[in-house]
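#struct-help
A.M.: can someone run this one for me? Single chain, 313 residues.
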Amino acid sequence: MPDLISHLKKLRILEERLGARTPYAWFDPSSLPQAQDIVDVNRGAGQMMRFMGIDTVTPLISFARQADGVAGHVEFGHGVPGIAPIELDPSLRSDARKTWRVIAHELAHVYLRTHCIDIDTGNQDWDGRHREYLTETAAIFAGLGKVMLNAGPLRGTYLGLWDLAFIYSSVCTMRGISSADSETGIVDSQALGQLRQIRTDYRWLLSASPGSLPQHGDRAEVDRLVTRLRQQLISVRRILELVAADVDTGRRLAQGQGKASGAPDVYDPALRVLLAMMAEESASRLSVDLTRRLRSHVELLAALLVETSARGY
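D.P.: on it. Structure tokens below:
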């Protein structure tokens, strides 16, 4: 199962810090020049940087051979204030969409650095790769999602097309952007296919709304899941007594997670939608876990019944 909650947690970091100052719009990839020469490339990079709300830093793009598996990088600490030197591998020059996608990633590094945002390196679940995952997420969050998707699958990047499409779809849900508007300007057929498949497969998650966010201590969702499981196993209700302790533990864990991701203290509709999505994903995981536990007990009961019948009891 894809690690959806990791993507949603990164979006939460960005929304809590920058949601109030982020426009609910996507940069139009068709406004970019053809990237036929270095002047066009620098002009297009400047367009994207300004759209991200950063006018204190000017990107300076050049092409130079990169290490194996590296499409580009931005150089910090060079001593020239207000300039962000970005090197791209020359292999990108033959494909404008891929050039803009890598530039978008490097500009996202500048975006995060400008706003002093970094992952919690003390989190054991997030290693150095997650810094790059956060950067990919930030590029979409800041409005460059269509630029990222239009490149299609690309080697030398950190997140695959499916992950980018899921993050993009999540941001559209957070900001109330329609399916039609989300697809406008996306010309890569694989990206469009991924977006549409994700909307189908994760309709239960991408239909979240601020009103569906559980309040502190609200166990209604967990109770609904447990009730559905009980109905499915009505013919073996005795088994529920054997797993009552497990179910109660699952409830307490779910309740504790709900408190950790409680409703925001400030009015931020996008953040509330994101928290509702995180709560729905957690509830789904709980349902899968409870189903697995109950199935193991039911299989044990069935085996005992077969053995009992064979012995003529």
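A.M.: thanks! Residues 211-310 form one domain.
D.P.: also worth noting: The first helix runs from residue 4 to 18.
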